[in-house]
Amino acid sequence: MSLSAYIPIVGLLALGAAFALFSVAIAPFTGPRRYNKAKLDAYECGIEPTPQPIGGGRFPVKYYLTAMLFIVFDIEIIFLYPWAVSFNALGLFGFVEMVLFITTVFVAYAYVWRRGGLDWD
């Protein structure tokens, strides 16, 4: 297969990049310029923003734990979907590997559960 087969793809990528750059460059000239204090303030669902303490606020550890759990289980789904699609082609080897993968994820889940990471106060 020659490289000439990729010319339409490169052209489409170049067209998309040119459109994106053009849109960003032309926006300050075409958009309205009506600045006021309400537009520049932070928006918190209609509630007045609470002032942050000097040095920034502290987030509880459970916030980060929840974010990490989301990433772990999101990655698990990313690996499960292609495995499920090609289940018949992979055979017993693919099944054993997925069982090992899911076991590893459930060990992490059990650890977090046992440590109280899923309990909300």
Q: List SSEs in N-to-C order.
A: HHHH
The major β-sheet equals:
none
Q: State the CATH class.
A: Mainly Alpha
Architecture (CATH level 2) name: Up-down Bundle
Poorly predicted spans: none
Jot down its keywords.
mainly alpha; single chain; NADH-quinone oxidoreductase subunit A; 121 residues
Notes on the structure:
The protein has 121 residues and is an all-alpha fold. It contains four helices and no strands. It has one domain (3-114): Up-down Bundle (Methane Monooxygenase Hydroxylase, Chain G, domain 1). The protein has helices at 7-30, 37-40, 61-85, 87-114. The mean pLDDT is 83. This is NADH-quinone oxidoreductase subunit A.
